[in-house]
Amino acid sequence: MKIALINENSQAAKNALIEKTLREVVEPKGFTVVNYGMYSADDKAQLTYVQEGLLAAILLNSGAADFVVTGCGTGEGATLAMNAFPGVLCGHIVDPSDAYLFSQINAGNAAAFPFAKGFGWGGELNLKYCFEKLFEAAPGGGYPPERVVPEQRNKKILDQVKTVTHKDILTVLKTIDQDFLKQAIAGEHFKEYFYRDCTNDAIRDYIKSVIGE
């Protein structure tokens, strides 16, 4: 699994801590972490939480990432922004039980954390335990056991509904404000990581045209 990490501007200073904690948990499982920043509050390329959602949608829909870890001050704005885009199913994760239940019941492909609210003494420990539970087992296993079948059925229904209520990602990329899009993909290492990992030629080609390549 390739896990992308994305931070917006208000919590960019925590990027290194989040990346370190995430790697400690998932790399022993054979997963890969790709850090798309922001890397610090002073980064030239600044991301809002809305742009986190757009960037996540690009990565997930293009095959450049299998899962996105993100957040903001409360995690709420990031969650709303992520779920506004096609191909993204994001949960708001506050504690380890949230992480486990979201993975097993909802089987999403993104998680948004509160990196300011409640993130005090021991915050990095809670984050570690959340990551452990989020990636403990294959998603969609269900909980409790007697609810597995209806939960898996509802997840399929939700996925089908989202294909109706959302435009496809290429339409979104072509019709969204292009300056907003350029800002979302202006990260220091975006081109390096995205071009390497993207598996969708149409999305790659459009991103290249936006960048001017």
Quick take:
The protein is α/β, with parallel strands linked by helices.
What does this structure look like?
With 213 residues, the protein is of the alpha/beta class. It contains ten helices and five strands, in the order βαβαβαβαβαααααα. A five-stranded parallel β-sheet has the order 2-1-3-5-4, with helices on both faces. Strand 4, helix 4 and strand 5 (110-114) form a beta-alpha-beta unit.
Number of separate strands? 5
Order of helices and strands: EHEHEHEHEHHHHHH
**Radius of gyration computed on alpha carbons:** 17 Å
Distance between the termini: 29 Å
Beta percentage is 5-15%
Helices and strands, with pairings:
Layout lengths: L1 E4 L9 H12 L5 E4 L13 H14 L4 E6 L3 H8 L6 E3 L3 H11 L3 E5 L8 H12 L13 H18 L3 H7 L2 H7 L5 H8 L3 H11 L2
Parallel strand pairs: 1-2, 1-3, 3-5, 4-5
Tags for this entry?
single chain; 213 residues; alpha/beta; 5 strands
